[in-house]
Design goal:
By secondary structure, the protein is mainly α. The protein is built from 6 helices and no strands. Helices cover 54% and strands 0% of the residues. Helix 4 packs parallel to helix 5.
Length: 90
């Protein structure tokens, strides 16, 4: 199972293991905003969109999801914004 999880996130899981949670890093309200963005755009069946994960992991998933949606007219504004990083916390 651990190997599959590591592969699913491009092998970045070990790097995030020692980081603090997004909630601890930027606060509950800002972390929840990232989580909601992540859930909305993630193409994954089990995305890492949880405030207990590091912000960097959540931000990578938002960027990945936005890359799929960037050309869609219905994409969220934070995915269409250029050159701003859509994964940055609010």
């Amino acid at each position: 199972m651990g190997v599959l999880v590591g592969l699913a996130f491009g092998g970045h899981v070990a790097a995030f293991a020692a980081e603090q949670s997004c909630k601890a890093e930027i606060g509950h309200k800002a972390a929840q905003k990232l989580v909601q963005r992540c859930i909305f755009v993630s193409p994954a069946t089990n995305p890492p969109c949880h405030a207990n994960n590091p912000c960097a992991l959540i931000q990578e998933e938002i960027a990945r999801g936005c890359a799929y949606l960037a050309q869609e007219k219905d994409a969220p504004a934070y995915c269409r914004a250029k050159p701003a990083n859509p994964a940055q916390h609010p």
